[in-house]
Amino acid sequence: MTAPLSAADATSDEPHCSLDFKAKTIDGKTVDLEDYEGKVVLIVNVASKCGYTKQYDGLEDLYKKYKDQGLVVLGFPSNEFGGQEPGTNADIKEFCTAKFGVTFPMMSKIEVNTPRASDLYKHLTSQTAPPAGTGPVKWNFEKFLIGRDGQLVNRYRSATKPSDEELTSEIEKQLAKKG
């Protein structure tokens, strides 16, 4: 049930843009993540039955607080960690909207670490970004912060709450940059 994500053609010597991918929304529509270039993007692998699931509230708060300044939160459901996202895309959408009032864009369920991992996550996990570094996603609700230029700026492990100062201050720093 992996949503097809593919890298766009890279024709320059510039670092590969972290938004140079296509994804499917939770409703099955294909979107070009490059459409978010010029915005600050927080990419999060999410799950409905996890101890960190309450972070949906914080992610929604971040989105509401900063969306008019250019922040986009993108939720990517994944069932890889403890089988904590077993539902269909329709189930996930219903859960997120009914329980947490999620209005930020939710994508189709994907894989983030397996051999069938999405190209987006293959790219993100191959990049080194403070404070979490590089390598496989460790658990649900790991966060990747992309700057207005489409480059990965920071990576935060699951324990970093959306309201933590280390994350919010970096979001504000990135929003202050004009693209």
Provide a concise account of the structure shown.
The protein is an alpha+beta fold. It contains four helices and six strands; from the N terminus they run E-E-E-H-E-H-H-E-E-H.
Walk me through what this model shows.
- Helices cover 25% and strands 16% of the residues.
- It is globular, with a radius of gyration of 15 Å.
- Strands 4-3-5-6 form a 4-stranded mixed sheet, covered by helices on one side. The chain has a two-stranded antiparallel ribbon with strand order 1-2.
- It is built from 4 helices and 6 strands.
- It is of the alpha+beta class and 179 residues long.
- Helix 1 links the parallel strand 3 and strand 4.
List the SSEs and their pairings.
Elements: E1 22-24, E2 30-32, E3 40-46, H1 55-66, E4 71-77, H2 89-100, H3 119-126, E5 143-146, E6 152-156, H4 165-176
Parallel strand pairs: 3-4
Antiparallel strand pairs: 1-2, 3-5, 5-6
How much of the sequence lies in strands comes to 15-25%
| Discrete helix count | 4
Q: Pick out the low-confidence regions.
A: 1-15
C-alpha geometry: globular
Query: What strand order characterises the main sheet?
Result: 4-3-5-6
Distance from N terminus to C terminus (CA atoms, Å) equals: 36 Å
The ordered string of helix (H) and strand (E) elements is: EEEHEHHEEH
Which radius of gyration do the C-alpha atoms yield?
Answer: 15 Å
**Overall pLDDT metric:** 91
Q: Tell me about the largest β-sheet.
A: 4 strands, mixed
Structural class: alpha+beta
Helicity, as a percent range: 10-25%
What's the β-strand tally? 6
